[in-house]
Amino acid sequence: MTIPRVTATPAAEALVAKLAARHGPLVFHQSGGCCDGSAPMCFARGDFRIGQNDVLLGSVGGAPFYMGGQQFTYWQHTQLIIDVVPGRGASFSLEIPEGVRFLTRSRVFSDTEVAELEAAGPPPRGVQA
């Protein structure tokens, strides 16, 4: 697939590298639930279980990025752009002690991009990386 479903800003990539150096392999998950679940959460890879309906969208700084299956149905025509902003989210995400939080920005895919993504088939579900 040439069109990434998830990308990251340089600031997010740098933070992922810093967190990986400290915690080892990482994984992202965005559930789409209320409050904290609507934000991308970063965990040490063994500290979060991927559900069978979670969708693998790609990776951020080498860390697999999953989204809850129900949420993916709403976001499937949208590219996620993971960024970092100052502030403290109320979560268990690894960046919290850094005084920043991950944030999802987005853009709608063009009709051409949607057609290419559809031709590539659906992203994998429930795969623990």
Task: Quickly count the helices.
Answer: 3
* Backbone shape: globular
Structural class: alpha/beta
Strand content: 25-35%
Helix content: 10-25%
* CA(first)-CA(last) distance: 18 Å
Number of strands: 7
Secondary-structure element series: EHEEEEHEEH
> From the 3D coordinates, which CATH architecture would you assign?
Sandwich
Strand order of the largest sheet: 3-2-5-4
Q: Largest sheet, described in full?
A: 4 strands, mixed
Task: Tell me the Rg in angstroms.
Answer: 14 Å
Overall residue-averaged pLDDT value: 91
State the domain count: 1
In the CATH hierarchy, what is the superfamily? HesB-like domain
* Unreliable stretches: none
Report the CATH C-level class: Mainly Beta
CATH fold group: Hypothetical Protein Aq_1857, Chain: A
Please give a structural write-up.
With 129 residues, the protein is an alpha/beta fold. It has helices at residues 10-23, 69-75, 111-120; strands at residues 6-8, 26-30, 41-44, 55-60, 63-67, 78-86, 100-108. A four-stranded mixed sheet has the order 3-2-5-4. The longest helix has 14 residues, at 10-23. It is globular and about 40 Å long. The chain starts with 5 loop residues before the first strand and ends in a 9-residue tail after the last helix. The model has no long low-confidence stretch (mean pLDDT 91).
